[in-house]
């Protein structure tokens, strides 16, 4: 049951060959048995999950089931869900139980989906390895001594280890696509504004975007259908007509123009990554696609620009954790200022503190123009590069990440090495563009490689079909990590 795609589970629920209670119980049993090995879930609430499953079964019985009714979904612990502990991977929110639902949680609830649990992540989504979590590192199902990527590493590992048929994540600089790549699954970051950020704990608001993780492009489409939608409570949520993201699945890709930015293929990516990506491009050519060279000349500035803008926004967003209203409060202090200081010193981990320091610095008087304003200008140049490139192609392809999964601990001592992981993913966030990652092979260590597809604004349906056509012709997405029994 746990090796079935979300789509086929949906068909089984519709055909009443399995109930949501059976399905949910099956996944909960697996999680209870295997979470010690992967550490991908922070919080489970069996009672709450099964109650939702019973309601879903009643909904199906009454004939009002939808595609996701009864499907258990793993939620990155950055999404507030009413009655659920929501930690954001931080000691600061260790005891925080959300009094309300995030907009995407609300929409999944209305569709009858089941919350299976809350997944582990880098603290406040700051990281590329899921090692900065207060709850310990997540382990990669392909090699338990390697990281699953991050920050949505718990969600990615849960899907890869068949501990959830689908999951949610957030992507500020790559946190959906990069863990999907390193864990051998699929992940999609939608166009900025397509998924509401209401109730999604803020990291860098102008970059943060929620999206789905699953094992196939088809499953991503089903999840995005429920996740996307206008919400007046997020001022950057886009008021657009609802669309069916599965509507283009099945359209041949013959004639599609694939842009290959030379900057994505210049020295930097590991040979095993380049080889798998080149093979994927060859497959697309066999399917009748044409490849054209494009340039993203300002791409090299993306990482430095991101590490000015994201910490600047984070330092402002994280000012709310002051020990007064919710979350951690230092047990002992002398006065108000001391309470703030001790609370924040105890509640935040090292990476979060580093970001707050950088952000406060670049926003401070005298440096604001030199760093923050300058970075905003370069951000615009990166967006312009993409606009130019899309005049010549329909989608852009390249690697999702320069390397496959690295060892736990390998990059924790060197923040710059860690930041460089996102060199291929950050540009799409800066430009607000949709990007997805699908498995396209393995390197010499047998670790999965991800192929990134970047589209123009609102091209999600088309990109999902581009991914789907590849998955019809290849079987990389069907591979199962070692030691996972699939009966
Ligand atoms: N790894 C990047 C960072 O640490 C991106 C994280 C994300 O997308 N949430 O900021």
What this model shows, in words?
The protein has 487 residues and is α/β, with parallel strands linked by helices. The chain starts with 5 loop residues before the first helix and ends in a 14-residue tail after the last helix. The protein has helices at residues 6-14, 20-38, 46-61, 103-110, 153-160, 177-183, 217-227, 262-265, 271-286, 302-317, 336-347, 350-362, 368-389, 415-419, 426-431, 460-473; strands at residues 41-43, 72-76, 114-119, 166-170, 186-189, 210-214, 257-261, 290-294, 395-399, 435-442, 448-455. The protein has a domain at 6-249: Amidase signature (AS) enzymes (Alpha-Beta Complex), CATH 3.90.1300. Helix 10 (302-317) packs across helix 12. The strands form 2 sheets. Strands 4-6-5-10-11-9-7-8 form an 8-stranded mixed β-sheet. A 3-stranded mixed β-sheet has the order 1-3-2. It contains 16 helices and 11 strands. Glutamine binds next to loops.
Please describe the structure with a list of short key phrases separated by commas or semicolons.
about 475 residues; alpha/beta; Amidase signature (AS) enzymes; 8-stranded mixed beta sheet; 3-stranded mixed beta sheet; about 40% helix; about 10% strand; globular; binds glutamine
What is the name of the CATH topology of the domain at 6-249? Amidase signature (AS) enzymes
Helix count, DSSP H or I runs of 4 or more residues? 16
Percent helix range: 25-40%
Mean pLDDT: 97
**List of distinct ligands in this structure:** glutamine
Trace the largest sheet across and list its strands: 4-6-5-10-11-9-7-8
Largest sheet: 8 strands, mixed
Oligomer: single chain
Radius of gyration: 21 Å
Order of helices and strands: HHEHEHEHEHEEHEHHEHHHHEHHEEH
**How far apart, in Å, are the first and last alpha carbons?**
8 Å
């Amino acid at each position: 049951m746990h090796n079935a795609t979300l789509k086929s589970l949906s068909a089984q629920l519709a055909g009443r060959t399995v109930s949501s209670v059976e399905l949910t119980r099956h996944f909960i049993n697996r999680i209870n048995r295997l979470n010690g090995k992967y550490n991908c879930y922070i919080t489970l609430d069996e009672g709450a999950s099964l109650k939702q499953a019973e309601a879903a079964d009643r909904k199906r019985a009454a004939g009002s089931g939808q595609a996701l009714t009864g499907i258990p979904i793993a939620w990155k612990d950055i999404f507030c869900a009413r009655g659920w502990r929501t930690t954001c991977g931080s000691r600061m929110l260790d005891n925080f139980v959300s009094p309300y639902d995030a907009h995407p949680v609300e929409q999944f609830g209305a569709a009858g989906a089941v919350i299976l649990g809350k997944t582990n992540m880098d603290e406040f989504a700051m990281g590329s390895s899921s090692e900065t979590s207060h709850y310990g590192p997540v382990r990669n199902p392909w090699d338990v001594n390697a990281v699953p990527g991050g920050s949505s590493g718990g969600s990615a590992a849960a899907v890869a280890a068949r501990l959830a048929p689908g999951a949610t994540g957030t992507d500020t600089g790559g946190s959906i696509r990069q863990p999907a790549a390193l864990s051998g699954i699929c992940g999609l970051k939608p166009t900025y504004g397509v998924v509401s950020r209401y109730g999604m704990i803020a990291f860098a608001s102008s970059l943060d975007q929620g999206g789905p993780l699953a094992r196939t492009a088809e499953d991503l489409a089903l999840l995005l259908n429920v996740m996307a939608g206008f919400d007046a409570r997020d001022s950057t949520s886009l008021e657009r007509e609802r669309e069916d993201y599965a509507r283009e699945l099945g359209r041949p890709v013959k004639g599609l123009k694939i842009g290959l930015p030379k900057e994505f293929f210049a020295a930097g990516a590991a040979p095993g990554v380049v080889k798998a990506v080149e093979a994927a491009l060859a497959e697309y050519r066999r399917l009748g696609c044409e490849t054209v060279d494009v340039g993203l000349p300002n791409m090299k500035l993306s990482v430095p620009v991101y590490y000015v803008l994201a910490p600047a926004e984070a330092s402002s967003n994280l000012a709310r954790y002051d020990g007064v209203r919710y979350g951690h409060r230092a047990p002992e202090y002398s006065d108000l200022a001391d309470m703030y200081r001790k609370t924040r010193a105890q509640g935040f981990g090292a990476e979060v503190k580093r970001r707050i320091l950088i952000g406060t610095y670049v926003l401070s008087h005298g440096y604001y123009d030199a760093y923050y304003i300058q970075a905003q200008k370069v951000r615009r140049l990166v967006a312009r590069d993409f606009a130019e490139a899309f005049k010549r192609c329909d989608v852009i392809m390249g690697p999702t990440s320069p390397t496959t999964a690295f060892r736990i601990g390998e990059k924790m001592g060197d923040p710059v090495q860690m930041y460089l992981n996102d060199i291929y993913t950050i540009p799409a966030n800066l430009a607000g563009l949709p990007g997805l990652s699908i498995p396209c092979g393995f390197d010499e260590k047998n670790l999965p490689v991800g192929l990134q597809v970047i589209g123009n604004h609102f091209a999600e349906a088309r990109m999902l079909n581009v991914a789907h056509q590849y998955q019809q012709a290849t079987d990389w997405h069907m591979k199962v990590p070692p030691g996972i029994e699939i009966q």
